[in-house]
Specification:
Blueprint: E1 3-4, H1 6-18, E2 25-32, E3 38-45, E4 53-56, E5 62-65, H2 67-73, E6 77-80, E7 89-92, E8 98-99, E9 105-107
Parallel strand pairs: 1-6, 2-5
Antiparallel strand pairs: 2-3, 3-9, 4-5, 6-7, 8-9
Length: 108
């Protein structure tokens, strides 16, 4: 499961509105690269793919995750730190053994 906090949900909805994205959700995934070995990636998506896992916050914000990425993201809490410049999304990933300073790269 992936949990989306209220703060992250607000930030995602604000960004969707700014980008003119009225429907769909945020596709979250993992790819090789970054200073720690794996990097989080995200982009807007109109709809989930048939094999995606779909997670929804209490206010309806939807997150789409492909099966391969889900193996690295299961149990993650997607949060937002309003103290950071640009109110960045934060991945609180219990599967990460270490992470880089920016929080967008991790190692398992």
């Amino acid at each position: 499961m992936i949990e989306v906090t209220a703060a992250a949900s607000r930030r995602i909805r604000e960004a969707m509105a700014t980008e003119g994205q009225d429907t769909g959700g945020l596709r979250v995934g993992v790819k090789a690269g970054g200073c720690s070995g794996l990097s989080y990636v995200f982009k807007w998506a109109e709809a989930p793919k048939p094999t995606d896992k779909v997670f929804e916050s209490p206010d309806g914000t939807r997150i789409f995750v492909d099966p391969k990425s889900y193996t690295f993201l299961d149990g993650t809490i997607l949060d937002c730190d309003s103290e950071m410049l640009g109110q960045s999304l934060i991945f609180r990933n219990p599967n990460a053994k270490s992470a880089c300073g920016c929080g967008l790269s991790f190692q398992v």
